[in-house]
User: Which sequence fits this backbone?
């Protein structure tokens, strides 16, 4: 007999501003603070809802959580229901972009537009190998070796060299937090593959990709752009995987311009 999935989790969320609603989903091992450099610029014009996904930040995970897309999707849909939100502008980063894509495909009625940052339609061998390298570093050498490996892979080298204080804070935080949820979500991501469905996505989509992303190759952004009708792409040079942190002003500007353009369309055309 199949085991019932764990119950959905009430998500702790930052919620500020007024107007059309933007919901922003962080990636594996991150939390709502990923968007700190972006929320103020957006909240001056929109309502911005930024949750901590299960097992991350201030949101706990119930016993038995496996961090499957079914679980994570149910949590986000529960948040939309809790706040009685109309169709939202859904933004996701990395693993959060994959989750946002999954939600838009499964529940297009909940989504007015989609922004995929450092995202992909599937997890390729390069990303799987990198994730395994992180987990191996953690198992063999501990949290600090894991943090150093992640920092090297996540950020453009020149940006990292100019922000060594930030790197130190990340290493301190990694030493404090439980990495179990991140490891389980990372493992679930290795099986993600929506290539057979993305052409059916019926929502306007913005793709934002770092040209020098070592985790999810920039070619994935082009695949998304070519596969999704009514999509556009912005590729940022000298930028690694962590676009919202490396390029917050450009990211906020791109999202705001895109959402404003979508809001100017009659809803019936979406």
Assistant:
């Amino acid at each position: 007999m199949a085991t019932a999935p764990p119950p959905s989790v009430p998500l702790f969320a930052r919620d500020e501003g007024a107007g059309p609603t933007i919901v922003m989903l962080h990636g594996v091992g991150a939390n709502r603070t990923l968007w700190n450099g972006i929320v103020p610029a957006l909240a001056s014009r929109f309502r911005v809802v930024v949750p901590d996904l299960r097992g991350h930040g201030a949101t706990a995970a119930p016993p038995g959580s496996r961090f499957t897309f079914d679980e994570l999707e149910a949590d986000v849909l529960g948040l939309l229901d809790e706040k009685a939100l109309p169709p939202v502008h859904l933004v996701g980063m990395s693993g959060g972009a994959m989750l946002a894509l999954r939600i838009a495909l499964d529940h297009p009625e909940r989504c007015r537009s989609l922004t995929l940052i450092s995202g992909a339609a599937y997890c390729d061998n390069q990303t799987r190998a990198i994730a395994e390298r992180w987990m191996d570093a953690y198992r063999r050498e501990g949290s600090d070796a894991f943090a150093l490996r992640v920092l090297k892979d996540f950020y453009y080298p020149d940006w990292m060299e100019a922000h060594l204080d930030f790197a130190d804070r990340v290493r301190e935080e990694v030493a404090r937090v439980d990495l179990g949820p991140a490891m389980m979500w990372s493992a679930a991501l290795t099986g993600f593959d929506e290539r057979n469905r993305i052409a059916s996505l019926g929502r306007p989509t913005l793709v934002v990709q770092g040209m020098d992303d070592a985790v999810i190759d920039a070619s994935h952004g082009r695949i998304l752009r070519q596969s999704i009708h009514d999509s556009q792409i912005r590729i940022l040079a000298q930028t690694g995987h962590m676009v919202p942190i490396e390029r917050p002003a450009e990211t906020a500007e791109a999202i705001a311009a895109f959402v404003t353009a979508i809001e100017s369309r009659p809803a019936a055309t979406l």
Q: What stands out?
A: The mean pLDDT is 94. The two ends are 41 Å apart (CA to CA).
